[in-house]
Amino acid sequence: MLRCSFCRKGEDQVRLTSSPSDYPRAYICDECIRVCSSVLADVSPRERLDGTAPMAIGRPEPSEYPEHAAGYVSLVTGNDVVESLVKQGPRTVNAIRHLTEEEAAYRYAPGKWSIKEVLGHVIDTERIWAYRALHFARQDPAPLPAFDGDSYVRAAGFNARTLQYLVYEFTAVRDSTVYLLDELDAEAWMRRGTAGGHQYSVRALAYMIAGHELHHRRVLEDKYGRPSVRARTPLSH
Fold first, then answer.
1. Count of CB atoms within 10 A of residue 233's CB?
2. What is the pTM of this model?
3. Residues 6+ apart with CB under 8 A from 136
4. Helix, strand or coil, per DSSP, at residue 52
5. What whole-number distance in Å separates Cα of residue 29 and Cα of residue 34?
6. What pairs with residue 192 in β-bridges?
7. Which sequence spans correspond to the domains of the chain?
């Protein structure tokens, strides 16, 4: 049976093949095409377009974000958060993309999120924080509401989606975030606004997005990456 040369998915998911004259033939499925594209794009959009490096906007000061966000900001190293966001995405995808659907539904304890729900939470949070960054960068004065990640996960139905779908969605959201942030000028990066009663700068939100992903990748490695994940523990309800 024909299978993807990289992940061994069946022929119903294979989309590209090498030339008939090649031996051995190579086959690749949609998911691996997406991952390869992410790896090849492991530079900032600005580098791809005109050869210039992205603007390093510096790290946010503690006054630019509430205390509860400090842990996320501290996880991100360096002064170029756009570059960090570009390089993080494929690493998170590579950490989970080989899981089966059953493994992706694993919870390390009753009442905890499944792996799919963790990824879905990262997606939702990035969307909301990126919108906050857009809102503040465009100088919209209206305050924004708070965000309750738990209630979003409960309402989302992430476990009904395939892991492959969620991986595609995460990659698309990350690409959108990078293109939004990479073209901001120095003044826009420093603008601030209010969400949930707290003040944030645009650059603080960017660091929070990167740090939030890193935090949950570490949770996946620490809590879900043990042999119990591979034991294919069924999803608890």
1. 14
2. 0.76
3. 191, 192, 193, 200, 201, 202, 205
4. coil
5. 9
6. 201
7. 1-40, 43-230
Tell me which residue of 145, 113, 142, 150 sits closest to 129, measured CA to CA: 145
> Prior bond to 145 cis, omega within 30?
no
> Per CATH, which fold does 43-230 belong to?
Four Helix Bundle (Hemerythrin (Met), subunit A) (1.20.120)
Q: What is the number of helices (H) and of strands (E) in the chain? A: 11, 4
Q: Which of 178, 188, 205, 230 is nearest to 65 (CA)?
A: 205
Q: What are phi and psi of 144, to 5 degrees?
A: -105, 155
DSSP-H helix ranges across 144-191? 149-156, 163-182, 186-190
Eight-class DSSP state of 78: S
Over residues 82-140, the pLDDT tens digits come to: 999 999 999 999 889 889 999 999 998 899 999 999 999 999 999 999 999 999 999 99
Instruction: Give the C-alpha separation, 92 to 96, whole Å.
Output: 7
225, 103 Cβ separation under 8 angstroms: no
- Exposed e or buried b for every residue in 65-74, given b needs 16+ CB within 10 A? beeebeebbe
